[in-house]
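Tutorial handout. Part one gives the primary structure; part two gives the three-dimensional structure as tokens.
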Amino acid sequence: MKKSAIKQQYEEAANLRDKIQAIENIAQKQKVSNMVENNIDVIGTAKNDMGVCVEIFFVRGSKMIGREHYFLNELKDMETKEILSGFIKEYYLGSENVPSKIMIEEEIEDEEVLCEILSENAGRKVEIKSPKKGEKLRFVEMAKNNAKVTLENKQEDKYEILNEIKDKLDLAELPRKIETFDISNISGTNIVARNVCNCRPVK
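Part two.
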């Protein structure tokens, strides 16, 4: 275009300019289309001997507008794909706030069936994807890392509390097992009792 202008071939230069602008506009639209999705939830998980943490990023228009995390300690012996499948069912089935796309770290066996049910409930297409590259994969990896950090922080908090109990009770080591009892009644009748037991795994 510059060469044509220097040679005073202004009409050709103008045509080239228009073509360049058209290409740039198309490229920009494609970029925006790729980046700006209606709404995406990104789910990442982390687990250790003490439990499971599921982290959700809420991505709207290529921006993360919020996040939540959940501890599912009873699922710590399950495989990741089973945890993801169970969480999606529990979190989204019956919910009015279902995104257009749910991104997870690995494929789940009942993905197709879940997509059909969620799409039917939402009245529009809902996809479940496990990205392998690009920005979407980075979002999933971020969710996984956040879940890991959140789980580690919870674990550290738990050991701080156990250390306080150890010091208060003058124990030789951290307690391995703690049992609590809650007893309720109505004017001395209809007595109900509940026992909660928490065991610390050996490091």
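Part three, for discussion. Strands lie at 40-47, 52-60, 63-71, 101-103, 127-129, 177-186, 189-199. DSSP finds five helices and seven strands in the chain.
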